Amino acid sequence: MEDKSNIKIRYLHSNTSKDLKNRCTDEYKIYAPKIAKKYKKTFKILLKFTKNRDKTLYIMYDKVKKWYKAENINMSMEKIYVKTKLGSYLSGGCGIEASLLTNLTASAVFAYTSLYIKKLGTISILCYMLIISFYGLIVLSKEDDEVEMYNLFLEVLNELETSRE
């Protein structure tokens, strides 16, 4: 029987080989989703205790730093993941909820500009716009918190990367 820890990996079109046992087992694991769950739970609890968002963010910075230090991570993979998440939020790809909000608003504009204004009346239009406005505020505040969290992750990763060098 062959020892699987000493298998030689041969790269295509080259004469070099690499031992499998020298490879880090956690090399391709991304910890950001796991840390994001911890972050959200801990942030809510700390915010109730401190009642100050800035203090809570400062405490969370240290906690996220400890969490990342405790794991054996590939810095470049983590940074790519976090930057991709930030890019999707900042470049207009806000997610399903924001798309739903846009669709609801657009459908209301097209529906109410036609003959339905006479049938439904102004009270129903005002109620619809009020509901859409509150829903929009909830969605945008949630996505703002996500962007804040991923920016914090990116800052921690940058600091850890400079401290390793």
In terms of topology, how is this protein built?
Layout lengths: L7 E3 L6 E3 L12 H19 L2 H18 L4 H16 L5 H18 L2 H5 L1 H43 L1
Antiparallel strand pairs: 1-2
Helix pairs in contact: 1-2, 2-6, 3-6, 4-6
How do the strands of the widest beta sheet line up side by side?
1-2
| H-E string | EEHHHHHH
Instruction: Give the overall silhouette.
Output: elongated
* Overall structural domain count: 1
Q: Which consecutive residue ranges, at least 5 long each, have pLDDT under 50?
A: 18-22
Keywords:
mainly alpha; elongated; 165 residues; 72% helix; two-stranded antiparallel ribbon
How would you explain this protein's 3D organization?
The radius of gyration is 24 Å and the shape is elongated. A two-stranded antiparallel sheet has the order 1-2. The chain is mainly alpha-helical and 165 residues long. β1 and β2 (17-19) form a beta hairpin. The chain contains 6 helices and 2 strands; from the N terminus they run ββαααααα. α2 crosses α6, α3 (75-90) packs antiparallel against α6 and α4 packs antiparallel against α6. Helices cover 72% and strands 4% of the residues. The chain has one domain (30-164). 9% of the residues are buried. Keywords: Membrane, Transmembrane, Transmembrane helix. The chain crosses the membrane at residues 120-140.
